[in-house]
Write a structure and sequence with these properties.
Elements lengths: L2 H6 L2 H34 L6 H54 L2 E3 L5 E3 L13 H39 L5 H13 L10 H9 L3 H10 L1 H6 L5 H25 L7 E2 L9 E2 L1 H28 L9 E7 L5 E6 L7 E6 L10 H21 L6 E7 L15 H20 L6 E7 L1 H12 L6 E5 L19 E4 L14 H15 L9 E2 L2 E2 L9 E2 L17 H11 L5
Parallel strand pairs: 7-8, 7-9, 9-10, 10-11, 11-14
Antiparallel strand pairs: 1-2, 3-4, 5-6, 6-8, 12-13
Length: about 575
């Protein structure tokens, strides 16, 4: 698609063709009704019997089925032409808008898209001192419009080509074929159900024109934003709407709580003793939860609104809702175009709340660390790090984090998300890493063990166990499994849910600590400690004094090593 072709495209001609098919569809339907009345009904009422009659009735019934199938196919051609007109018109509008802005800014756009302007400050046609940046922005818009038109052209051409082939070879007269074609057309306006295979979702999304995609984003933003297999840019657009709606809903709930009740009951109300007011206790619980979620929303908005610079690459909101403890998926850099893609899964306490700001910052730090590793190696590769608070994480160490139910419940969602990253990635396959901290490593380990993940590297930081005895049990090359545990990290004392196993762990680990056994199992809460040699992972170095939250300290050995692992570089 080129500028002149799109600019000169006569959308009215497509509309005229669509209207002609509508007229043909109506006339064909009327002919079928006439045939039914004049032929089928007369024959049925003729009382003709016998072998010849049976054959005639069967043939006529078959012919009626063929006519209905043909009518259905005609209707599908009309719908395809309608979608074509909408898609090309939208792209044409975007192109004209860009060209008008170029003219307003005293720039000339050549047929091949090159933009020129007058650089002489003394000239009446001087384009200004920011002309270069303006030209780049307009050029990007022109390219996007042409890409949009090309996508619409290819999508509609494929649909019309299929229907044309059906008409040519007669398969369009088959009722099953017509039904299949109708189902496919209907599917274009139906968003796949949550949990649908991301590769199928991507195929469906690609079958829509850009105009149809934008309509889906605006009308079904809650579904589009949560669906794995839809590209990052589209999910971000949908989730920005979800974020705003979610924030408004949280504020409405907060306002709906009403004024703060009195904190304590009177002596009379408490039957002679001082007591906290139950109404206040419940009000305060709800108030604190809503305020905390609003802090999480603020953290997302703050990061999304930061000007793009070396320390703050562009961000994409890949998921958001406020149900339960809330879900938020924030990507630093676009994972669909990055060479290295890392998903960071936080652990206990992860939620849409005040803690979210720190989790997002960790992704920023890991991107910077991976960039430093690439720069040192002379590698121009790009990196995206995604903070995945896409599950209900435990919110307390005891009792919640001692239970593996949160990890098991997250398996399907994490598997689908990682599969979706593969489905939507553009060009050469990216080098994908799943990196987790604390209980997040249990979530990741269980998913790898039970469902598998399409990742190249696994990084387990401060793990209470990943549900397996050895790195090879994760389904990834053990040489690409990394683990770290700081010398001041109390996670090494994490006890299992089963008290009998807890006693065994304590005895065995103590024996290993003091050299009383040559074959320690080093079990923690959910399996063997990934940071011990027996597990078989490659060890990420940590600085002396590293505690449970200290792995992301700037310039720390652990942060440097995480960046190297994400970038696919040797750990130094």
């Amino acid at each position: 698609m080129d500028i002149k072709t799109l600019y000169d495209a006569n959308i009215n001609n497509i509309t005229v063709a669509k209207n002609a098919y509508d007229a043909l569809f109506t006339a064909f339907g009327q002919h079928i009704e006439s045939w039914q009345h004049e032929v089928v009904d007369r024959l049925t009422n003729s009382h003709w019997t016998g072998t010849a009659s049976g054959h005639a009735h069967a043939r006529i019934q078959f012919l009626g089925t063929e006519l209905q199938a043909a009518k259905q196919e005609l209707g599908l051609i009309s719908k395809a032409l309608s979608d074509a007109a909408e898609g090309i018109a939208a792209a044409q509008s975007h192109l004209i808008s860009a060209l008008d802005d170029a003219k307003t800014n005293k720039m000339t756009v050549a047929p091949d898209g090159r933009i020129t302007w007058d650089n002489d400050p003394n000239s009446a046609n001087y384009a200004g001192d920011k002309a270069d940046a303006t030209a780049q922005a307009i050029s990007a818009r022109i390219t996007a419009a042409l890409t949009e038109a090309d996508h619409a052209d290819q999508t509609i051409s494929a649909r019309l080509g299929h229907l044309s082939t059906n008409a040519t070879n007669g398969t369009g007269l088959d009722a099953a074929t017509a039904k299949s074609d109708q189902d496919a057309a209907n599917a274009l306006s139906r968003i796949p159900a949550a949990g649908t295979d991301p590769n199928s979702v991507k195929t469906w999304w690609n079958s829509l024109t850009d105009a149809q995609q934008q309509r889906m984003i605006l009308t079904d933003h809650d579904k589009v934003g949560a669906l794995d297999g839809i590209p990052a840019v589209a999910r971000n657009q949908a989730n920005l709407i979800n974020l705003q709606r979610g924030k408004e809903d949280l504020q409405r709930q907060l306002d709906g709580l009403g004024p703060e009740p009195k904190k304590y009951l009177s002596v009379a109300e408490a039957n002679g003793g001082a007591a906290q007011n139950p109404a206040y206790t419940e009000w305060k619980r709800k108030y604190d939860a809503l305020k905390d979620k609003l802090k999480g929303v603020d953290a997302i908005e703050d990061r999304l609104s930061k000007p793009v610079d070396a320390d703050h690459p562009p961000t994409y909101l890949l998921g958001f809702d406020t149900k339960g403890t809330g879900r938020a998926i924030i990507a630093v850099n676009n994972p669909d175009t990055a060479d290295n893609v890392s998903t960071y899964v936080p652990g206990t306490g992860a939620r849409v709340g005040a803690s979210l700001a720190g989790d997002i910052e960790r992704s920023d730090l890991m991107v910077a660390s991976a960039n430093a590793a690439n720069k040192k190696a002379g590698d121009p590769s790009t990196t995206s790090s995604i903070t995945w608070v896409g599950y209900e994480a435990p919110q307390s160490i005891v009792p919640e984090a001692a239970w593996d139910g949160f990890a098991k419940a997250a398996e399907k969602d994490l598997h689908n998300f990682e599969t979706g990253l593969r489905a939507t990635h553009e060009g050469k396959a990216s080098n994908n890493t799943i990196l987790a901290h604390s209980y997040g490593t249990t979530t990741v380990g269980y998913t790898l063990r039970d469902k598998g993940l399409p990742v190249d590297n696994v990084v387990l930081i401060a793990s209470p166990g990943a549900g397996v005895e050895h790195a090879r049990d994760l389904g990834v090359d053990p040489s690409h499994v990394f683990a770290a545990q700081g010398d001041k990290d109390a996670i090494k004392f994490a006890l299992p849910e089963d008290p009998d196993n807890a006693v065994s762990n304590i005895v065995n680990n103590a024996a290993a600590e003091f050299g009383y056994t040559d074959n320690p199992d080093h079990h923690v809460a959910f399996g063997r400690d990934p940071s011990v040699p027996q597990f078989g992972a490659r060890i990420i170095p940590t600085d002396p004094g590293t505690d449970h939250s200290g792995y992301w300290a700037k310039n720390s050995a652990s942060l440097i090593a995480m960046g190297q692992a994400i970038a696919g570089k040797p750990i130094s």
